[in-house]
Structure formats: C-alpha cells, structure tokens
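The protein record quoted for completeness.
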Amino acid sequence: MRILIATAGSRGDVAPFTGLGARLQAAGHQVAVATHATFAASVRTAGLEFRPLPVDPRAELASAEGRRLLQAGTGPRAVLQLLKLGRKFMPELADGIADATALGTDLLLTTSTTSPLGQVAAEAAGIPSIGLHLQPLSPTREFAPAVTGARSLGRPGNLLAGHAVQVATDQLFAPAVRGLRRRLGLPPLGAAHARRKYPVLHGFSPAVVPRPADWRPGLDVAGYWWPVRDPDWHPPARLLDFLAAGPPPVFVGFGSLVVPDPARLTATVVAAVRAARVRAVLQSGWSDLGAGEAEDVLTIGDAPHD
C-alpha cells in the first residue's frame, strides 16, 4: 500500500512521524511524508520518500505576525492571532497537500495541522484517510482544551471551551477548505461536517493522558511514535569533553519554539542553573539561544535527546 503522511508545522509536528513511517515501511508499505523542505533530510534519513509542502515554519514564526502570536501567549488573544497568521498561508498549504496526494497515494494520514485540508484531498482522490494527532484536541468534560493552557473549568466549562476551540479552528481552515473543494470539483462542505466521523489515532500514552470516557467511537489513543535517529550522528568533541569534565548536567531545550527575547530567556536559564548549582547543556533551537563561553553551561545545536 502507498501511504502518505501529510504534516505541517515545527519539528515536533514532523519528527514523530518519521518513526511511524519507518515502522509502516518495515511492515511492507511504501511510505512518503509530505512536509516542509526544512525537514527533508530527516525524512530521507528515515528511508522515506519526501514530498514537499510550501511555507517555511521557522520564517513564519520569526515574522512580525509570528512574533505577535508568541507574545500573545495563550487564551483568546492567541487564538485570534493564530487565525490571522494561519489564514495567510493556508490556501498555499492546501494546494501543496492536494498536489502531494496526487503523486500516488492509497491511504492518507493527516495530522492536527493538516486534517481539514487532507480530508478534502482524500475525498477528491477517492481514498481513505485517518487522523494522527499528538495532542487530545477533541472536546471533553474531563479537562480544558490543551491549547488554552487553562486549568479545569469544571466539567460543563471544559466541554464548552473545547467546542469553542473547535469553532475557532474551523474558522482558521474554512477559507482554504472552501477554496480547495472548489479547485478539486467537490461540493461545498465545512470542516466541521468532515470531522464528525473522522477516525483519529492519538500519539501519546494513556498513562499520561487517559482516553476521555466521553469521546465518541473512532477517537483512540495509540501510544507514542518515536522519531527515527540518524545512524550517522556522532556527538561533537566539545560535548563529550563537557560531559566528561564534571557531574551529569541538566539539559535545557525549547526545540522549535521561537521566543521574542532570546537573550532574556538565556539569562534566565543561566541564572537558574547557577542558583541550583548544577551544570547544564543548553540547546540553541529555533530561538538561537546561547550562553557564550560560560564554563558551567554548554550551548549545542541539534542532538538526539537519548
């Protein structure tokens, strides 16, 4: 079977699916991953076919709109800023997913950042599709929506907030969904209609987030999908020297997060390390954090967490 995994976003939205794709390929399937060009090497390192999607996520987060989103934090203001940023590139992303699907696909696997668009592409191609979500995004009474960063609002409040977030998400994708359906000759339907019976597998452990009892059938928790590690990666000498020069360090990293003031965050990390009297390895990440020549803090680039 020819399987296409379509995912968009930062490294955390892509890396887990290299591991899933490798396992599917080991089971005898042909697997391709459609994502941004910045992740092409990691896809190919996993032995999977790479199909390009438009948009540079790092550039978008570093743009004026992206920085306003980061400064908004969580809550209604952040949702409104996300709508503004997302609507700018969603039509282009929609066309990219449709084009990647048209290259030959028997099953389309989508993620939380591509599902509404991928469902349209799969419908037009006449193929099945399944969602792969890394967070519990469906409304539930058991906890507040993860994207709000809020504590429990009570069972009725949690459910109401969950539906409100879904409405906002539908608004984010709505123009691109309408445009893609027109382009592919499909009748007009909204994202909410397609979502009602869409099967979704969630890539987290039920020991961390138990499956909510009020979720509908078809929303299942599958466990973690671990990224493929580059077999040719070797730690740089400066990292080995730092590890050997003292007690085991604390690791501090923010991955693909882009912060408005990298120098301030770096200073906070260094101050915390010294207050705790430990050594630390600081990963620069997309914010380009760096502790300079500090003896107790080593700054490194990308490295496997294990």
Notes: The beta strands are 2-6, 30-36, 49-53, 107-111, 129-133, 200-202, 219-221, 250-252, 280-283, 297-300. The chain has ten helices and ten strands. The mean pLDDT is 89. The two ends are 32 Å apart (CA to CA).
